[in-house]
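Dear H.,

Thanks for agreeing to be a second pair of eyes. The structure we're designing against is below in token form, covering all 243 positions.
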């Protein structure tokens, strides 16, 4: 039996990648159970925010099993599902590899294997929090986006209501890992998930990081009482490199 791989807040890329390799087969099922089905609602909100159009080229970074990528590809846009976990990509190809306008790429968020100004829109859901240097990833996303292009980041965040925030943190710490184990997934990975959410900056700080990377028109809105936040921004027209 394979020993469970557990990442920590150092976010060593090899350990994080290995952890996601192990949870890939049951990842979507566990997410649906632990979010009470809200994952589908959040995915739909992200797709609407990206607003993919036929003929556009879109990067879905930290694509995981490519559920979000397939949702974007339904518009007719050409979508690249990129992830640094080979296991996640393999699962994504198994489920969605038949889509002619969806391709897959093994990619490090801090050193993307794409050209400057390549994508009309870039998006990342629940992945920025797992990157060792998230500011570097935001700069890389800026680099590969065309001037005037769009950024959408969906990430776990900080519920603003203190009572709900306390209940949410109790659920993450005490309930979520048990749910993961009952669903047949690496419960240690969801211990890490709780730690990474607790350690992650709130909505305003992430918005500030996005601005620092050169993005403009930065805004966010909370989903499900702020459990997650949907951040949006634009690469300025005429921008050619990180400021």
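And this is the sequence the design step returned. I haven't edited it by hand at all.
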């Amino acid at each position: 039996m394979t020993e469970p791989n557990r990442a920590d807040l150092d976010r060593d890329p090899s350990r994080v990648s290995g952890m996601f390799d192990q949870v890939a087969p049951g990842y979507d099922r566990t997410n649906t159970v632990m979010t009470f089905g809200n994952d589908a609602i959040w995915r739909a909100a992200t797709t609407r925010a990206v607003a993919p159009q036929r003929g556009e080229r879109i990067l879905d970074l930290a694509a995981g099993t490519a559920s979000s990528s397939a949702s974007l590809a339904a518009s007719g846009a050409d979508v690249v599902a990129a992830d640094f976990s080979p296991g996640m990509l393999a699962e994504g190809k198994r489920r969605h590899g038949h889509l002619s306008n969806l391709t897959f790429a093994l990619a490090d968020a801090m050193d993307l294997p794409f050209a400057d100004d390549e994508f009309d829109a870039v998006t990342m859901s629940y992945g920025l929090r797992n990157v060792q240097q998230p500011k570097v990833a935001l700069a890389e996303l800026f680099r590969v986006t065309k001037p005037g292009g769009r950024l959408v980041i969906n990430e776990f965040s900080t519920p603003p209501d203190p009572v709900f925030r306390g209940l949410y943190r109790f659920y993450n710490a005490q309930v979520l890992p048990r749910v993961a184990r009952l669903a047949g997934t690496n419960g240690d990975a969801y211990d890490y998930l709780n730690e990474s959410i607790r350690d992650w900056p709130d909505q305003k700080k992430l918005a500030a990081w996005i601005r620092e990377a050169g993005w403009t028109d930065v805004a966010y809105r909370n989903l499900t009482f702020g459990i997650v936040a949907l951040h949006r921004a634009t690469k300025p027209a005429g921008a050619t490199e990180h400021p």
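Two observations from my side: The mean pLDDT is 87. The chain has nine helices and seven strands.

Warmly,
E.
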